[in-house]
Amino acid sequence: MHHALFFHGETLHLMPSGALFWPARKTLAVSDLHFGKSERLARRGGSLLPPYETQATLEKLDRDLEYTRADSVICLGDSFDDLAALDGMEESARLWLARLMAGKDWTWITGNHDPGPIEIGGTHRADLKVYPFTFRHIAQAGEKAEISGHYHPKARLAGQTKPCFLADANRLVMPAYGVYTGGLRAHDAALTALMARDALAILTGPRVLAMPMPR
To answer: The CATH number of the domain where 25 resides is what?
Structure first.
């Protein structure tokens, strides 16, 4: 049920969950997991949310890894809601994450919520270049073949608002993968200034649907 996107000579599978799978490299990319968001809000005296988002996000990730059989995983930043979120993660969740990481080439890209390495396995990078793509957290002006996250784009169709991918000839912006994340409307000025006029919005959910990016 994925959307096949031909992007800079490669076919990428945009999945209903909001993950990206690159079959030629057996690589799964996800963005903005925001593990520990409810714990961080409670710790800082914010709104109290049911503390289940880490488990629900791990369940999604487990399903996608099982389905794709990916050998490599790239997490495009804001994987943890802040640098202390790993310490607040329940032991069962830490063990679950460790099991998912075992035997895989796992890269954590730096985000604005998690601006430094955490005490967990894998490789920590500011960005990652895997020809022909550059993977990073926040899109940069003038880049080509760039895959990024950060904005949590979403779009509305038939009365329903859903997280979405945004794609034009030069860049692909991924939706947030974490289950407690909000989103920025695709017609927001920050996104319309970033994306070309002919950009597509690819909505996630049971049916992955592509449409012109709302403006």
So the answer is: 3.60.21
